[in-house]
Design brief:
With 409 residues, the protein is α+β, with helices and mostly antiparallel strands. It is built from 11 helices and 17 strands.
Length: 409
């Protein structure tokens, strides 16, 4: 599939405006990097965890969008973003970051709102520092300023076919990097050396930024889980836990594989079996109309017959992904409240069950993670790197492969 990026930009713009109308916003000022990427394909200058370093201004009254970027970056962005008039790419008012800047620090954003036809009404925003939010409130005293995150999450939740294709391509690069990681994970190799080879692959293939602080942990570092790559060397009999991902062409993909260096012990294989069966049950249940509670239920059915009910990590079993590295929906583990969710065609889930058992020789932390697209009749697994054959052995019906095209609905 050839991706028409300009068409995708237009589709996103239209859906954003549909979201504004649906949620009752006359204008938006978005600071969060993923919302800016969605609204006008603005590639962030800084890593995703930097707040309020750029802004995008959108109103229902005008078809135009005004973009604010770091002052040093403005000339380049005017040259690069040919889909935005030069006059609409402006230097970001860095005073927004200063407590003492006052509302005047945001005057350029106020001017942009007025230029685009917003002088009074309901203004939505996403994130900010306390100072920047106070400044924004003072800038539009006759308007209501409201949290726009529910609107923006709705807008981004269902992907267009072009976005799904971008995610397929990003996932193929993640698969490539995972193959490199698995090949590198040999006795004597440091965790950070494995991650170095992953990063080398990502950036050789055009990565914009890693997904987050990527994880490579081994042996005892898997339980409790070490959420970075340290200097421990891989040993024979170790589990090697690798959670990797990056942004390509404006979308994130990621995957996790837990492998064993050498032969696993019985406890490692048993933990892996439970994670694998839970992972497969969640993926197998994905289809339009399925709810978050349905996915919790199938995961719980597997977990309840195992000795590891209290070892499931108490965070999520799945989350959304796209222009954001981890975005709604977030599905809680079985037995915990989860936000309302009904799956629709075009949604993307990162399915990520994780069990961590301390005191297991060679490590007892296991995670499997794959990106799954909701299709008209079921699902499609986008990440395709195989699972570890030594850990899969003796799991009924698995053979030795992980996700494959036969699972695509």
């Amino acid at each position: 599939m050839t991706i028409d990026i300009e068409l995708l930009r237009r589709k996103r713009t239209q859906r954003l405006r549909e979201g504004m109308e649906r949620f009752g916003f006359d204008a938006l000022v978005v600071f969060e990097y993923a919302n800016g990427r969605y609204a006008i394909d603005l590639r962030p200058l800084y890593a995703p965890n930097f707040l309020v370093r750029q802004a995008v201004v959108v109103t229902l009254q005008s078809p135009e969008v005004i973009v604010f970027v770091h002052q040093d970056d403005t000339p380049h962005r005017r040259q690069l973003m040919e889909w935005v008039p030069d006059a609409n790419v402006r230097a970001f008012p860095t005073g927004v970051m200063l407590e003492g800047g006052g509302a005047q620090a945001l005057a350029p954003i106020g001017d942009a709102l007025a230029e685009l036809g917003f002088t009074k009404g309901r203004l939505g925003t996403d994130i900010g520092t306390p100072a920047s939010l106070q400044n924004l409130l003072a800038l539009v005293p006759d308007s209501e300023v409201a949290d726009a995150n529910a609107c923006l999450n709705w807008v981004r939740s269902v992907k267009f076919p072009e976005e799904v294709q971008l995610l397929r391509e990003a996932s193929s690069i993640v698969d490539e990097a995972m193959a490199v990681a698995v090949a590198t994970a040999q006795p004597g190799v440091l965790e950070c050396e494995i991650l170095a080879e992953v990063m080398r692959t990502f950036y050789r293939r055009g990565a914009e930024v890693p997904q987050c602080n990527l994880i490579v942990c081994t042996g005892d570092n898997t339980a409790p889980m070490q959420r970075y790559a340290g200097e421990r060397a891989v040993r024979d009999g170790d589990l090697v836990f690798m959670d990797i991902g990056a942004c390509f062409s404006g979308v994130f993909s990621e995957a996790t594989r837990t492998i064993v260096c050498g032969e696993p012990n019985a406890r490692q294989r048993d933990i892996f079996r439970v994670v694998y069966e839970m992972h497969e049950a969640i993926i197998g249940a994905i289809a339009p109309g399925v709810t978050g509670e349905d996915l919790q239920r199938v995961a719980g059915d597997v977990l309840s017959t195992s000795p590891y009910e209290d070892k499931l990590q108490k965070m999520i079993i799945a989350h959304g992904i796209g222009v954001g590295y981890a975005e709604p929906p977030f599905i809680s583990p079985p037995g915990r409240p989860t936000p309302p969710l009904v799956l629709e065609e075009g949604m993307i889930l990162a399915v990520v069950p994780t069990i961590v058992v301390e005191g297991v020789p060679g490590g007892g932390g296991v995670r499997l993670e794959d990106l799954v697209a909701v299709t008209a009749s079921g699902y499609e697994v986008l990440t395709q790197y195989p699972y570890d054959s030594a850990l899969l052995r003796d799991i009924a019906g698995t053979g030795v492969l992980g996700p494959d095209t036969q699972r695509k609905a």
